[in-house]
Amino acid sequence: MYRYIVFLLLFVSLVMVCQAQEGYGLVFASKNIAQEDRTSLDLAPEKPIQVKGSYSLSFDLSFQPFFRSYFGYVFRITDEKRQNIDLIYNVRAKAFYVVTGNAFSGITFSIPQDSLFHQWNTIRLDADNETHTLSVTVNGRRIGAIRSPVVSGSALRICFGANYRKTFRTFDLPPMRLKDVRLFAGGELQHHWPLDQTQGTTDKDLVTGQTAQIKNPVWMRPAFTRWQLADSFIVNGNAAVSMDAATGTIYISCNDSLYRYYCYTHQKAAQAQALPQLSPAGLHAVFNPVDRQLYQLLPDSQQVAVYDTAQHAWSRTLNPQHVTGYWHSNLFFSRFDSSIYMIGGYGDFRYKNEVHCYTPGSSHWELVTMSGDTFTPRYLAALGHNQAGDTAYILGGYGSTTGDQLLNPHNLYDLILFDVKRRTFRTVYRMKEPEEQYAFAGNMVLDTRRQEYYALTFANDRMNSSLQLIRGSLKEPEYTTMATAIRYDFYDIRSAARLFYTPENDELTVVTLFSLKNNTTQVRIHTLQFSPYALGAPAPADKPTPQYVVRILIAIGLVVALFLLALGIAALNRRKQPPVASAPVNQPKPETVSISPVGPMVSVTVAYPGVQLFGHFTVTDREGNDITRAFSPLLKELFLLLYLHSIPGRNGISSEKIHEVLWPGRSVKDAKNNRSVNLVKLKSILDKTGAYTLVKDNERWMFRFEGPAVQTDLDRYYQLLRRDPGNTAALVELLKQGPFLQETEYPWLDKFKADIASHNIELLGHFMEENPEAAPAFMLDVCDCMLYADSLHEEAVRHKCRALVALRQHSAARQLYASFLKEYKNTYGLSYEMEYAEAIAHC
């Protein structure tokens, strides 16, 4: 039976893998265009959809960023009785409203802005014509339910966006994206429109073949797989490129002007300079996000010019003494120590492995002494760094072991980690040498959460080359190609390419430069849609597989799956094993929802603590705005050092300890200066949260928030331990947020995590022993909180399995126990002796 299941999963996975990776959906043209040009999706253009009893409408939704107005109808459901159920977005309230007939139903909900604009959000509307009830679920969370006589129609017409039907005509719609519209009846899938087209005005239902009609469609798939030329222009002299990531502005500096390209609006502006600035070949530029100024650098002569935005002029004229020896070096600004680093390069027949460091605001250049693994001299490498600027990755390049161009130069395919804090190189891996050699554009985009990178490769052995986007792992030597290629004229002392990512509009931007013979530079800018819900969009083939072929393959896969399933059942019957009662997978007991008449709108009050440490580190200001991003990794670690060493039972932290943790190896003077500067930055952020005290008492720093106005979950945690340790419900509600400082790892933090984990296991373990018959749903939460502290806690695993069985989730219980057995053996090298049936019986 297991062989059949494994083969089944492999077969279906192979059939579905293409679609699982692709970014698809329908974009609705809405604002700032004529009414007749706005997008409409009509699921039943010919005849109404017939429903009996209960039905559900489900779909995935996101909004397009950077529109002034988002008011309008997401969908309208109308019936044979001329009744309507609508979902409307109210831009002032930043909330969705469900309308029944001519009145607000009482159901309203909001979706966090980051999720609304950058992720797919699954919305489901459940209606029951017999009980006349209506409920809404968003991302798996039940929002509310009402009873209304409007919920009674059986012949439905469903329209998303603009509605061109005479009785219910409307052209107000939000600028939205939509995919995977599904309609269920009696819990069974009846229709599924994936909206996965590349062209045309129709989309077929995968279940019945029924055709949905789209007016003025904008299909997403092409925008995720084909680069678009956004701009092309010529500038005087040589050009240098840099970016202000905070505003999404790309700067292109040249002899007589400074060009700004705004990634969010796709507009370009040029500002003439008061005095011409010589821009020598090989010039480097970098934007400093701390002082928000643009820098030009000539490393050979250690010259630096800063752009004055008020005077429209550079602080000095750069005077190159000779042709640069640092072509295609990798530059980045490190927030960790507010310095600019330049690595590698090529010139005068030699490849470089030097690391230069320049600190803005000073005239000091440092040739950094590195340790660790050998860094092969190179150029044409890609560099990306994390947000903190304390870690950079250098990918590939072209160079030689000795640095001499005459001694076996070759392409490199290693990934090197540059530790800014410790000033070391470490080889992460080496990729297998490809059949077709390639080098890399100067930078790459990192996704440290997924441990992935995005870079541009090109053949560096030809003039007529092309840039290919790839996605690779920061842990394993593997990568995949994405999207189409971009034409790239390559000549190393005339060409350059840079890759940028702007998360606010989910877009990648490539800027290519090519110096022409008349002392001008050709600038080309290409863009590609690139978002969290379409990271895997692959490069399209020369002749993409037609959708009907894909659907035929899916149908064949389902037939084979049913055949294999029948064989498996027959095999089980032949074994004549005693029947085991089980519940259907993913079919939990229906949730009881209280029904209220039309009246006050359903809302959920969310408490915003000043600082949240259980789960992901989060800080909010007085108005409840999330200001976590204001904390650089260095400021975050500094804050946690001060705060955690000041909790009850601790007596603060010394300056020496802070220096040892944050600035090891630095002189006392440098460390003290860094501490003073960063304390000022930290205070400016904390001032937004409320009253606090930071004092130095007996040579030790102490930090605490003042009064009840600033709430932290850790303070509430210790209050519970002191005043009401038996209030398990309150403790579980707090711990459900997640493990203490999830995904935050420092060597010094381990003891704090261990202390809290020990308290949690003791208190919750005592509750389990004293209350073995507690409500299963609550017992699940208790066990989860214990497993946050110890993922192999045997009692927690057994009680969780028993709770799942009580909730009729047998499959989930067995899967949990199987995972526990596997992890237990991997950790301890021994098999856990208790079988599943015995484990749940002995709770």
Automatic annotation (TrEMBL):
Q: Which UniProt keywords apply?
A: Membrane, Transmembrane, Transmembrane helix
> Which stretches are transmembrane?
548-572
- Any one biological process term the GO annotation gives: regulation of DNA-templated transcription
GO MF: DNA binding
Q: Which SUPFAM superfamilies match?
A: Kelch motif
Record's InterPro entries? Answer: AfsR-DnrI-RedD_regulator, Kelch-typ_b-propeller
**Protein known as:** Kelch motif-containing protein
| The species this protein was found in | Chitinophaga eiseniae
